[in-house]
Amino acid sequence: MGQDKVWMALEGVSLVERVVRRVLPLADEFLFSTNAPERFETFARSMPVPSRVVTDLFAGAGPLAGIQAGLSAARHDLLLALAADMPFVNEALVRHLVALAVGFDAVVPQTPHPDTGELSWEPLHALYRRGCLTAIEARMAAGQRRAYCFYGDIRVRTVLPAEVQAYDPTLRSFVNVNTPVEWARIQRSVSGSGP
Fold first, then answer.
1. Residue 194 and residue 191: Cα distance in Å, rounded?
2. What is the pTM for the complete model shown?
3. Could you give the CA distance from residue 164 to residue 95 in angstroms, rounded to a whole number?
4. What is the pLDDT of residue 141?
5. Can you give the residue ranges of every domain in the chain?
């Protein structure tokens, strides 16, 4: 993207702030997992609920390291991991994921790949219990880095597309920004929709 995409403004609001606003009614705490904490520190202090910035304890491990850092720092047992570049997070869907968490270590949606239709995990739009830390850290120690590499070691409640679509018919919650083309598409799509 040529810049830190989470600070790009959509309808005058940064992507990270859009995500926060959408889940704020559900949050007792926000943890911002980043390896560039300076800008997030100011943002975290502006939150109406307790908020902290955490950095990866395992360098170079990508999103899995962010999940691990968040779980290590969380004050609560259940953590919602969200990518900061998903501007259309759906509160009703998140509430449904929380309702499914009883008896599971993780609640993770799957969505169809846009090109192949093959189902893919959405590990950065998922719920995790602190108990996942042991499995995550064991996989990281073994050199594994995929954000979902530990799912075979825990009790996962898979949320298939049909169940997700009861709350988000077009699966818009999972739209994220990785390229200038995707950014242009998202900007065009928001005309008339709220933050």
1. 9
2. 0.91
3. 11
4. 93
5. 5-178
